[in-house]
Automatic annotation (TrEMBL):
Belongs to the D-isomer specific 2-hydroxyacid dehydrogenase family. Residues 36-301 form the D-isomer specific 2-hydroxyacid dehydrogenase catalytic domain. It comes from Chryseomicrobium palamuruense. Gene3D superfamilies: NAD(P)-binding Rossmann-like Domain. InterPro entries: D-isomer_2_OHA_DH_cat_dom, D-isomer_DH_NAD-bd, NAD(P)-bd_dom_sf. This is D-2-hydroxyacid dehydrogenase.
Length: 312
C-alpha cells in the first residue's frame, strides 16, 4: 500500500513509521502532489483540492494532521466515500495555555506593565482584576474548551458551556444549548469561541450578541474567524473601549494591513499560533499510527473520523 505524506515529519518519526508498518511503502515529499497510486494521503489539508483528489483513483483515506478541514472539498470526498480523519484533540494543551495566558495578562495588567518597562517608568497601572468569581462562557466546548474550563475552574471561575445539543459538559458547572445563547451572554465576563467553520456557525455572532455582552467583556476567538463578521467585531470594540478582543483567527488570513483591527488598542492580534508546540507533529503521528493499525485490521471506525456532511 502506498502511503503518501505531503509534509515531512522529522527523520526519527519517518524511521519509526517505516520500521513499525513494514508492509507499506511510505513516501515523504513536501510540496508535491501525491503519486497517482496513493491509497492513504497524510497532509495538513491545505493541498487537498477536488482536482488533486480526482487524480488519485485508488485513494481511500486522507489523514489530516490538523483540526481544520473546512477548505477541503467535503461533498466530493463524501461522494467518493473517502475516509477523512483529523488531529482533533492534539491542540488542547498549547491552546488552553495560550488562552489562559491571555486572560491572566489582561486581568493583571501585564501589557501596561510591559509598556512601562520599555519606557523605564516607575508607575502603577490601573484596572487590575481578579479572576475568582468571574464567569466564562465557552462556545464549542470540545477537548480544548474542556481543558480551558479545567484550568479556569482552578482560579475560581464559573464556567458556562454552550453547545448545539445542550448535553452536559463535565468540566462546566452549567451547559446551555446554542439557541439559548442570548439568554446567558450578559452574564459572562469572558466569552470564548472555539467553534469550527460550518454553515451553521458562519457569522453566528452578530451585533445583537455584542450588544448583550458586558461593556468590559473579553471576547476571544480561537476557533474559526468567520464565526463573526469583522465589521461587527470592530463596531463592538469601538463602542466600548473597556472591552477587549483576543483573536487568534480571522475571516481573512493573514489579516490584511488595512484591517481596522490593527488600529484598535483593545484588540490583541495573535497570528493563528495558539496551537503551536514542539509536540504538534508528534501527537498527530500518534493518532495516525493508531488509525493505521486499525486500518490494517479492517477496522474503519477510525479515531477522529470526520462527518463529511456535518463538516467536522
Amino acid at each position: 500500500m502506498i502511503i503518501q505524506f505531503t509534509f515531512e515529519p522529522k527523520p526519527k518519526m519517518q524511521k519509526q513509521l517505516i520500521e513499525t508498518f513494514t508492509q507499506h511503502e511510505f513516501l515523504f515529499a513536501k510540496g508535491t502532489a501525491p503519486r497517482p497510486d496513493t491509497e492513504i494521503w497524510v497532509t495538513y489539508g491545505e493541498d487537498v483540492t477536488k482536482e488533486t483528489v480526482a487524480a488519485l483513483p485508488q485513494l481511500k483515506w486522507i489523514s489530516v494532521a490538523s483540526a481544520g478541514i473546512e477548505k477541503m472539498p467535503l461533498v466530493y470526498l463524501s461522494d467518493r466515500q473517502i475516509h477523512v480523519t483529523n488531529a482533533r484533540g492534539i491542540h488542547k494543551t498549547p491552546m488552553a495555555e495560550s488562552i489562559v495566558g491571555h486572560i491572566l495578562s489582561l486581568y493583571r495588567s501585564l501589557p501596561a506593565i510591559y509598556q512601562l518597562n520599555e519606557k523605564k517608568e516607575w508607575d502603577k497601572p490601573k484596572g487590575s482584576r481578579e479572576l475568582r468569581g468571574e464567569t466564562a462562557l465557552i462556545l464549542g466546548p470540545g477537548a480544548i474548551g474542556a481543558e480551558v474550563a479545567r484550568l479556569l475552574t482552578a482560579f475560581g471561575v464559573h464556567i458556562i458551556a454552550c453547545n448545539r445539543s445542550g448535553n452536559s459538559v463535565e468540566e462546566a458547572e452549567q451547559t446551555i444549548r446554542l439557541d439559548e445563547l442570548t439568554n446567558y451572554l450578559g452574564e459572562a465576563n469572558i466569552v470564548l469561541s472555539l467553534l469550527p467553520s460550518t454553515n451553521e456557525t458562519r457569522h453566528l455572532l452578530t451585533n445583537e450578541h455584542f450588544e448583550i455582552m458586558k461593556e468590559d467583556v473579553i471576547f476571544m476567538n480561537f476557533g474559526r474567524g468567520d464565526v463573526v463578521a469583522e465589521k461587527h467585531l470592530v463596531a463592538a470594540l469601538e463602542s466600548s473601549p473597556k472591552r477587549h478582543a483576543v483573536l487568534d483567527v480571522f475571516e481573512v488570513e493573514p489579516l490584511p494591513p488595512t484591517s481596522k483591527l490593527w488600529q484598535l488598542e483593545n484588540a490583541i492580534i495573535s497570528p493563528h499560533i495558539s496551537s503551536h508546540s514542539a509536540f504538534y507533529v508528534e501527537r498527530a503521528m500518534e493518532i495516525f499510527s493508531e488509525n493505521l493499525s486499525k486500518w490494517e485490521s479492517g477496522d474503519t471506525k477510525l479515531r477522529n473520523l470526520v462527518d463529511l456532511k456535518a463538516g467536522y
